[in-house]
Specification:
Length: 82
């Protein structure tokens, strides 16, 4: 039997972020402790790609650097892991 559990988290927990990390010389994005392998579109339309590119709804593109994080709304934030 396969089951899934969903746990609500408050906005101050680190798993409410997408953070860039260097791995083998390339930027990867981690969320909830898991490496992104495909692009994610947030509820507000902001897109986060697995290589760290953030595309806002107005078309503006930001590329995350090692240690940069965005919250679940696509806003830059400090890593809760530091």
């Amino acid at each position: 039997m396969l089951s899934f559990h969903v746990i609500a988290q408050d906005s101050k927990t680190p798993w409410n972020q997408y953070c860039a990390q260097l791995q083998d010389g390339k930027v990867i994005v981690i969320s909830d402790g898991i490496k992104l392998i495909s692009d994610v579109t947030l509820d507000n339309g902001v897109k986060i790609s697995a290589d760290g590119a953030i595309i806002k709804i107005d078309g503006t593109k930001i590329v995350l650097q090692n240690g940069d994080c965005v919250d679940k709304e696509g806003k830059m934030t400090e890593s809760k892991f530091n």
